């Protein structure tokens, strides 16, 4: 029995999902976490909303804050057009190691780059170190206490431009009240609220989309 929850999830996927099939990987993570052990992936219900926003945005450069086991990175990457890239930031090295294997097993490794470290250090280095000019879509799913600071950092680093889309998980539970207040009142975003439920649970949660209107 693998020691860590995240390693048990990866083991289950490797033993039951179809290698090279991102949908199968996503489905098996959802199956394991709804039947065996809860884990903090965005999940299948909020995942369908994420899919819809990714499809309508059709992004070339995606930034994800909070990789965890690679569930949403796999979910997003499966929808990206050839030549597009997903950069995902994870500060926990053990989770990053699991995510790397999960993404490899799903066969989306050519589109996904895992950046190990904290967002406040990595975001300011995206232009110089990772050759990013702008990000078209940002999935914010790391720590709700960092949502606002990291959104402001993306603005200050001029990484988001007019039309860039932010999508934040957990704005109801655990909750991101200051983030909602910021994007809804600063005047620079068009916001949409998507009520849903906490992953693998009937507790209420929601996603907030914030489309940048420019500085
Ligand atoms: O820390 C998190 N980062 C990113 N996403 C999360 C999440 O989707 C959660 F449900 C939760 C969560 C954790 C414990 C609970 F009891 C409920 C939700 C946490 C996170
Ligand atoms: Mg989340």
TrEMBL record:
Classification via SUPFAM superfamilies? S-adenosyl-L-methionine-dependent methyltransferases
The record lists Mg(2+) as bound by 141, 169-170
Q: Which cofactors, if any, are listed as required?
A: Mg(2+)
Locate the residues binding S-adenosyl-L-methionine.
42, 72, 90, 141
Tell me a GO cellular component: axon
Is Kinase among the key words of this record? Answer: no
**Key word Oxidoreductase present in the record?**
no
Record EC number: 2.1.1.6
Pfam families annotated for this entry? Answer: Methyltransf_3 (PF01596)
Q: Which domain of life is it from?
A: Eukaryota
What does the record say about how the cofactor binds? Binds 1 Mg(2+) ion per subunit.
Its UniProt entry gives the catalysed reaction(s) as: a catechol + S-adenosyl-L-methionine = a guaiacol + S-adenosyl-L-homocysteine + H(+)
**Which BP terms does GO give this entry?**
catecholamine catabolic process; developmental process; dopamine metabolic process; methylation
UniProt record similarity statement: Belongs to the class I-like SAM-binding methyltransferase superfamily. Cation-dependent O-methyltransferase family.
Q: What is this protein called?
A: Catechol O-methyltransferase
What's the source species for this entry? Answer: Eleutherodactylus coqui (Puerto Rican coqui)
């Amino acid at each position: 029995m693998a020691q860590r929850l995240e390693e048990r999830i990866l083991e289950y996927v490797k033993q039951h999902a179809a290698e090279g099939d991102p949908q199968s990987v996503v489905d098996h993570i959802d199956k394991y976490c709804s039947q065996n052990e809860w884990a903090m992936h965005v999940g299948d219900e909020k995942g369908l909303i994420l899919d819809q926003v990714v499809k309508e945005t059709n992004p070339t450069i995606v930034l994800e804050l909070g990789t965890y086991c690679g569930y949403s990175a796999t979910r997003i990457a499966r929808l990206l057009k050839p030549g597009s890239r997903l950069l995902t930031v994870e500060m926990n090295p053990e989770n990053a190691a699991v995510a790397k294997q999960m993404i490899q097993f799903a066969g989306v490794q050519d589109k996904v780059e895992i950046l190990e470290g904290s967002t406040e250090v990595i975001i300011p280095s995206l232009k110089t170190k990772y050759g990013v000019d702008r990000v078209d879509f940002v999935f914010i799913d790391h720590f709700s206490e960092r949502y606002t600071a990291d959104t402001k950092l993306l603005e200050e680093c001029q990484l988001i431009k007019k039309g860039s889309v932010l999508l934040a998980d957990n704005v109801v539970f655990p909750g991101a009240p200051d983030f909602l207040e910021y994007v809804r009142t600063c005047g620079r975003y068009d916001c949409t609220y998507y009520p849903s439920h906490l992953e693998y649970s009937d507790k209420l949660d929601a996603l907030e989309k914030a489309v940048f209107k420019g500085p």
